[in-house]
Design a protein that fits this description.
Blueprint lengths: L6 E7 L24 E5 L6 E5 L6 H15 L3 E6 L14 H4 L17 H8 L4 E5 L5 E4 L2 E4 L3 E3 L9 H4 L5 H26 L9 H12 L8 H12 L10 H6 L1 H4 L2 H11 L7 H13 L16 E5 L6 H29 L8 E5 L13 H20 L1 E7 L7 H5 L1 E6 L5 H10 L7 H4 L9 E5 L8 E5 L13 H4 L12
Parallel strand pairs: 3-11, 3-12, 4-9, 4-10, 5-8, 5-9, 10-11
Antiparallel strand pairs: 1-2, 1-14, 6-7, 12-13, 13-14
Length: about 500
């Protein structure tokens, strides 16, 4: 292994019988363990699709949080978390400092027993991770120095409308309109590409919504479609409307230094892509198309340039009330990540020299809800096909899935078959175990290890695949150091007498 490659500290090694970790003895203190006490995974072994399976209450969200933290602080990778339950809505915040200092109680197994000595030790590295939480909940605030201020980690959740598949837009429409909607989306994508070209050169007009600009352009040039010189006239209107310079005019210095002057052909090419599709759809279809787009008008934005990507991006899906909006948000982000990964691969190939590339991990909890074995409509099928494409070709383009599910039997079997790294936590019964083994393709795995999963304690994990090495391994997940978005149900909050005097009501 390259000496510069790192290990991910995922948990605690267990004793030879697979019982409790040796370090969990009375008197154990956070951060004072030896390296031999820790369960380490080579970071390079994560270059594979991963699936984590467990039933509710097994600690799977805790384990997933730890895995993401390690990817962020021990590698250069990017992560995009599609978060259905708001588990990562506060991932930029740290667990309380007292969780590092509260003694671990071996008899009750309470206390987190962190692998750093203090919150400050972890904060030193975590603050270097750039984090964005995209949400539709509205601006979050934090209190500092007695004043409330907007928390800069939270951004308004946006959908890049041009990335949406025509198949999704055309669902439940007749074949004729479906074909016209295809050309409508081509038209809007062409407008978006033109705006992005302007934006790359610092022209403020490109900050407009591509849907709004496309609708304006349509109204201006649609009446001209039947005239003989339609293409030339419509191009001139677009040039004027967007204040575009398509001819190499200007001073000698401008021609030498400005991409806009050096390569006006790019503008002419993009404008032609705008004018061509308009001939192939009717006003009726346009009205339907833009009404659909306006339903999600608060979820349209020009995509941020790749150079400004945050290392960790959380998409707060639970903040969107409508299922259709959540669906579009997932598809849009997934499509953009796939497009970006392919573009970086092409750029690296064209460069003729080594260009550093780092992977992007797409993380999805409750994966069976978005990648079902059986789809109910065209939209679900289209999204599943995109996940299948990433599962099949992701390694080539350095984009990998990390999927978490309570029900792998309801998860698409093709996607599961592409997941080399597998993690299983506590399962409810032998019957459930057999069902999971079939779903995960692990019928021939070591039964003596897998059978233990029905008796696992919270946080105990068995893994197989590249991240486990030559054979399956068991460990206890180490503590997550960042805040969880939700709150657990605690017995001390409710399973006590409701009356202060200790009396009961019968």
């Amino acid at each position: 292994m390259n000496k510069n490659q790192t290990d991910l500290v995922l948990g605690w090694k267990v004793d030879a019988d697979g019982g409790d970790p040796l370090y969990w003895a009375p008197g154990a203190r956070a951060g004072y363990q030896e390296k031999e006490n820790l369960f380490l995974v080579p970071s390079a072994s994560m270059a594979a699709h991963t699936i984590i399976v467990a039933q509710s209450g097994s600690g799977k969200s805790f384990f997933l949080g730890r895995l993401l933290e390690e990817l962020m602080i021990s590698t250069k990778a990017y992560c995009v978390v599609l978060d259905p339950d708001a588990d990562f809505r506060k991932v930029h915040l740290l667990d309380s400092a007292s969780s590092w200092t509260t003694p671990y109680d071996h008899s009750t197994r309470t206390g987190k027993l962190h692998t750093e000595k203090s919150q400050a030790d972890f904060a030193k590295v975590w603050k270097k991770v750039t984090i964005e939480i995209e949400t539709a909940r509205g601006p979050a605030t934090e209190v500092g120095g007695g004043d409330a201020k907007t928390d800069g980690h939270y951004k308004e959740l946006k959908i890049w409308w041009p990335s949406i598949s025509e198949e999704i837009l055309a669902e439940d429409t007749n074949p004729a309109m479906r074909a016209e909607l295809y050309h409508c989306q081509r038209f809007v994508r062409a407008v978006a590409e033109l705006l992005q070209l302007q934006r790359s050169e610092g022209r403020h007009r490109s900050l407009d919504s591509p849907v709004r600009v496309a609708e304006d352009i349509y109204k201006k040039i649609r009446p001209l479609v039947e005239i003989p010189n339609y293409e030339q006239t419509s191009r001139a209107i677009i040039v004027e409307y967007l204040s575009i310079q398509t001819e190499a005019r200007g001073t000698k210095e401008e021609k030498l230094n400005s991409p806009r002057y050096r390569d006006p052909f790019r503008y002419r090419q993009r404008i032609s892509r705008i004018t061509s599709p308009i001939k192939y759809f009717s006003d009726e279809t346009v009205t339907f198309y833009f009404s659909q787009a306006k339903m999600y008008s608060n979820l349209q934005a020009v995509r941020q340039p790749a150079t400004n990507r945050s290392r960790l991006t959380v998409i707060d899906m639970s903040s969107l009330k409508e299922r259709s909006a959540r669906f579009l948000a997932v598809y849009s982000r997934l499509a953009l990540q796939w497009e970006g990964a392919r573009k970086r691969w092409e750029d690296a190939g064209d460069a003729g020299k080594h260009i550093e590339r780092v992977p992007t991990f797409i993380v999805l909890d409750e994966a069976h809800n978005l990648i079902p074995a059986s789809t109910e409509n065209k939209s679900e099928q289209t999204l599943r096909e995109l996940f299948r494409t990433i599962a099949a070709e992701g390694r080539k383009y350095s984009i990998f899935l990390i999927l978490v599910s309570q029900r792998p039997d309801k998860l698409d079997q093709f996607v599961i078959s592409e997941c080399e790294n597998k993690g299983i936590m506590r399962l409810g019964s032998e019957e459930v175990l057999q069902k999971f083994k079939t779903a995960l393709g692990m019928e021939k795995s070591d039964d003596s290890l897998l059978e233990q999963t029905t008796k696992f304690g919270v946080g105990k994990v068995i893994i197989s695949g590249p991240w486990a090495g030559d054979k399956a391994k068991i460990f206890y997940t180490a503590a997550r150091r960042t805040k969880e978005g939700g709150a657990n149900l605690l017995p001390e909050d409710w399973a006590v007498r409701p009356f202060r005097d200790g009396s009961t009501a019968r």
